[in-house]
Design goal:
Elements (H helix, E strand, L loop, with lengths): L7 E11 L2 E7 L11 E4 L2 E9 L2 E6 L1 H6 L10 E6 L18 E11 L2 E7 L13 E4 L2 E6 L5 E6 L1 H6 L10 E6 L1 H13 L1
Amino acid sequence: MFTGIIENLGKVKSITKKESNINFQIQSTLTNQLKVDQSISHNGVCLTVTKINSNNYEVTAIEETIKKTNLGNLNIGSVINLERAMKIDQLLDGHIVQGHIDQTGECSQVKTQNGSWIYTFEYDNSKKNITIEKGSIAVNGVSLTVLDSKKSSFSVAIIPHTYKNTNFHKIIKGEIVNLEFDVLGKYIAKMYDIYK
């Protein structure tokens, strides 16, 4: 379980295919605080630390994860958002993020607006995921508030702090991002389908 408040940025140091899986070696200043078997959010994807070596650590993404997320698009040098699992005694500053990506989306527009940025993302609405105005969404693991909610798109406003301290400063038009829709909204949508 995560909050969507990014702790640190990581850099992909190596990518190794092993059968249908991909092993990623990540460099981060968080590495010395990690341990093997710990869950870490990588662009919103919950992955388990499998090895630690100096400033680098390794995680493995299975084929199903690669198909459903943007992890297969990463290259050596790619910058990713990192967050360690939430602690029960901490404040929930973002929203409840499970680390289970629902689908990817594509950045369709980036607008600068008086010191902040408005990003618009489009997604396939056939999967029945929804957003609502002022509701929560996680984009690449970042907890954000939805603006301009539509059937297959939404926008978010990014403040300078978030822009600088997450990989939003790397997102351009056409970029594929990981989307995790609000878990409460998913339960309500499922109940509606069952009981309508």
